[in-house]
Amino acid sequence: MAEFIEGKRPIIEALRENVPLMRILMADNLKRDPLVQDVLRKAKQRNVPVEKVPRQKLDDISQRGVHQGFIAYTEPFTYVGVGDVIARAVRANKDDSSNHDAQLVVVLDHITDAGNLGAIIRSAECVGAAGVIIPNKRSARVDATTYKTSAGAVGHLPIALTANITQALKRLQENGFWTVAATEHASEELWSVNLHGNIALVLGNEAQGVSRLVRDVCDLEGRLPMRGKVSSLNVAQASTACMFEWVRQNFS
């Protein structure tokens, strides 16, 4: 199902970040201010059609009442399966002339914020991860916010949907991955955890972290050391630290 973006600035940002837009609806009584001109100019550059419609139609479509005379329809994001991510990792190991045999898959245990999802995807793409796996329910999905915070990384990294995180982890284990939960409840700091080779890094929900059920399936777990008064990091920040520790252990 197509999703849509409301408002002048959000649509300008979507056009700037190469969010795949199908068409833009524009109120037929809209005054041509600089932002309107910017939308029209960027839409023309991206070959996105602009259709003039009665403002009432936009009012009927709008969910938040902030369309400002513009609503843009986005193309549905194309997800892959868990098997596709595993196959990509296997191919990458075979093609790696350095014989590192080290691939990273990032598994998200019900991350709910689309901005966090995008930031995590950005870090995963930067470290050369084979893909990201997310649940198909009760989880953030790829939307315009995700495109923005990923800085376009969603266009370069496979993102898989799964109906069952624990089954996805077991499948990764069967294909030679060690599953590692990043959790503040771990007894060991992540620096002491062996992250060599094929690793599935599990990151948890913004509020509850990695669930007990998922932790029980994981082979290993580690926590980031906290030296300040604040007891935790945002999950996107924590994910970056964890991913680059995998890079350090495998490629430094």
Q: Can you put this structure into words, describing what you see?
A:
This protein has 252 residues and is of the alpha/beta class. It has two domains: 3-74, 60s Ribosomal Protein L30, Chain: A; 82-251, 3-Layer(aba) Sandwich (Alpha/beta knot). It is built from nine helices and ten strands. Strands 7-6-5-9-8-10 form a six-stranded parallel beta sheet, with helices on both faces. Strands 1-4-2-3 form a four-stranded mixed beta sheet. Helix 5 runs parallel beside helix 6 (144-150) and helix 5 (114-126) runs parallel beside helix 9. The mean pLDDT is 91.
What Rg, in angstroms, do the CA atoms define? 21 Å
Described by strand count, sense and barrel closure, the largest sheet is: 6 strands, parallel
CATH superfamily of the largest domain: SPOUT methyltransferase, trefoil knot domain
Give the CATH level 1 class of the largest domain.
Answer: Alpha Beta
Shape: elongated
| Strand proportion | 15-25%
Helix content: 25-40%
Taking pLDDT < 50 over at least 5 consecutive residues as the criterion, the unreliable ranges are none
Q: How would you write the strand order of the largest sheet?
A: 7-6-5-9-8-10
Alpha-carbon distance between the two ends: 44 Å
Query: Structurally, how many domains make up the residues?
Result: 2
- The assigned structural class equals alpha/beta
Individual helix count: 9
Q: Strand tally, please? A: 10
Helix-strand sequence: EHEHEHEHEHEHEHEEHEH
CATH topology of the largest domain: Alpha/beta knot
CATH architecture of the largest domain: 3-Layer(aba) Sandwich
What is the residue-mean pLDDT, rounded to a whole number?
91
